[in-house]
Amino acid sequence: MKLAENTVTEKLLITKLEGNIVTALMRGGQVIEFRCEPVKDNRLLGNIYVGRVRDVVKNIQAAFIEIGKGMPCYYSLDENKTPLYTKKSAAKTLAQGDELLVQVSRESSKSKAPSVSSCLNFTGKYLVLTSGNTRVGFSQKLTPLEKKRLREWIEPYRNEQYGIVVRTNARNAGQAELEQELEALLGEYRRVTETAPHRTCFSLVYETPRDYLTALRDTYTSGLESIVTDDRELYASVKEYLSVHQPGDLPLLKFYEDGLLPLNKLYSLEKSLKEALAQKVWLKSGAYLVIQPTEALTVIDVNTGKCTQGKYQQETFLKINLEACREIARQLRLRNVSGIIIVDFINMEEKDYQGQLLKEFERFLKQDPVKSTLVDITPLGLVEVTRKKVRKPLSEQFSQSHSATI
Q: Could you tell me the Gene Ontology terms of the biological process aspect for this record (predicted)?
């Protein structure tokens, strides 16, 4: 989003809290996104391994591939038509014992194993290089004119071996910056694919940066005012990452130093984190939300609570629902809720009010960098939303990080 369209600037805070590295994106004095990871590195998402096929389960069109001893991962046969073999048996198709390059595409979640893919992604600030898909794609947040201009720069690099996805941040980049990043991504791709056949099974051939570093890469920088940390070790790591990958953002990096008022206290991060893990969320009007994640979906209930504003009941309900839809969109991003989401807004009889609510809700959902889709409203008045899964929800990130420190 261009700065002219986003008058509220943002800050990215990176600090250590109770043995965890907490990354918080602030906008207008409010946290809009949290990331939490243990100081001790144990991440899998985005890493590329030489995996070994343990089982092929034809009736569900899937295989289970180990990326370490006793670490099976789900592998969809329908979504992976071109495996990148490093060691192949005589069988024509994927078979037990085959070794191949796979990237962790989804983390484990409760009872579900991690997922891996043969479609490798190498992500930069402006571009994503993809194997297994040779198209040139664009972020939906780019305008038709921006896509046309960027396509002219990228099209000469189109290749039958890989595809390119142009990210939202590319709208403010020059041609030289895009070409430089693309060459770096191509270098990583070639290094991985050329060295992997000579590596032993379960080898880690590409390690994704730490989560607090990928936050630097994934944050829209057009409105980013500063990157602030109060930890010397994190400061050195961030400075090194920016120097190599995003030198243009290096002036944004600040070291906060105040022995009397730590960074997390200055911005009330502990309080914000506690609120982001709570089921109940109070709205300014006195109404509140109840957010309840389950194994299959997340349910959000809107309640009038203490709100008594307005002379007419239906207008009061509309006002609460409009306030709620804005906060729900923020909470989905803040908590990193994904999958199926069902929202039970306060029932409104007026069809015009329902249409107004859905229009506003969709507008707020589109501001989320992670793809969120308003699907429909059911005959019972429940609003269905889906949000793409990228990382674990905040509740699992925090519980994993917290347990890792015990």
A: rRNA processing
- Give the H/E segment covering residue 282: strand 280-282
| Contacts of 78-84 spanning 24+ positions with Cβ under 8 A | 79/117, 79/119, 80/117, 80/118, 80/119, 80/132, 81/132, 82/118, 82/132, 83/118, 84/118, 84/120, 84/131, 84/193, 84/196
pLDDT tens track for 113-165? 899 999 999 999 999 999 988 899 999 889 999 999 999 999 898 888 899 99
- Could you count the other beta carbons within 10 Å of the beta carbon of residue 257? 8
Specify the residue for token string 């989560």.
211
| 325-335 per-position pLDDT tens digit | 999 999 999 99
- Domains in the chain, please, with CATH? 1-43+209-276 (3.30.420.40), 48-119 (2.40.50.140), 278-387 (3.40.630)
291-302 confidence digits (pLDDT tens): 999 888 999 999
CB 350 within 8 A of CB 313: no
Cβ-based neighbours of 42, under 8 Å, separated by 6 or more: 404
CA pair distance 230, 15, nearest whole angstrom: 6
Q: How confident is the model at residue 4 (pLDDT cuts 50, 70, 90)?
A: very low
CB 196 within 8 A of CB 222: no
CA distance from start to end of the chain: 41
pTM of structure: 0.84
